[in-house]
Amino acid sequence: MKKIIITGALGQIGSELTMKLRELYGKDNVVATDIREPKDSKVVTDGIFEQLDVTDADRMKALVEKYEVDTFIHLAALLSAVAEAKPKLAWDLNMGGLLNALEIAREHNLKFFTPSSIGAFGPETPKDQTPQVTIQRPTTMYGVTKVSGELLGDYYFQKFGVDTRSVRFPGLISHETLPGGGTTDYAVDIYFEALKNNAYTSFIGKGTYMDMMYMSDAVDLIIQLMEAPSEQLKCRNAYNVSAMSVAPEDIEREIQKHLPEFKLTYEVDPVRQAIAESWPNAIDTSAAQEEWGFSPQFDLEKMTNDMLQQLNNKEI
Ligand code: VAH
Fold this sequence. Notes:
Elements: E1 4-7, H1 14-25, E2 30-34, H2 42-45, E3 48-51, H3 57-67, E4 71-74, H4 80-85, H5 87-108, E5 111-113, E6 116-117, E7 128-130, H6 141-160, E8 164-165, E9 167-169, E10 171-173, H7 186-197, E11 199-202, E12 210-214, H8 215-227, E13 239-240, E14 244-246, H9 248-256, E15 263-266, H10 270-278, E16 282-283, H11 286-292, H12 300-314
(3R)-3-hydroxy-L-norvaline (VAH) is lined by residues 79-80, 117-119, 142, 169-172, 179, 182-184.
């Protein structure tokens, strides 16, 4: 990777990935784009930023040619809960944007990354130690777009030789940005609310296990995967990646080591609970470990320490 364009740069992943890439590759070699253009974000003020609606193929192509990038990181998409509320918009944005990006990657021979998700699995998928290759019949529009995206990644690699790379992200936990419309958002909100109110009401029920990962590990693994030698990679649809499998009460116990009076209560949101229950409890990540050295650094204890410390410093 030398010169990189990112879509969705103001999103949960994009806002941290953009800053890390600017640090590693130089501010002049990272073109951050997003449909929004807030004046106060360092993603906008601390480097190259262009407004881009990913359904506008002509503008996307013009930016790729203007900055002569060699790598395309496509993050713009609607997340699971919002997608379930607006399924047609989710299909149009998630798939229309992705196809525009893949076509431009094909025309300009760009190295390509877009994330899939554990949301690409469904109720028939084995729930524990979910294999790299298994049944994928998701029951959400988000999941349908993620499986379709995985198949497109395979297709553009096999048919056109595009260097497509992807991972199935678990729930991602970040202190930089509040997530927007995901099912795993409770695992971010809980830390903000613990510090603000010493209490949190979870919309996901007790005992609901999902894979999770600290954003720091997610950002590092994207760079690690993108820098891995192409010949090492057998999976061009998406690799299973995860750092931990947790339920709300596990996070509660970890937070109480720092805030002993912290109280977790539950008000289950049936829509997001149903989505969560259709996803695996814990996926197998051996393929990513073996093929490109995936090795997350943050477990629940280490993540909780860092989250609370970082949020304390921000005086949220
Ligand atoms: C969501 N945070 O909840 C995203 C992610 C695995 C979850 O895809 O939609």
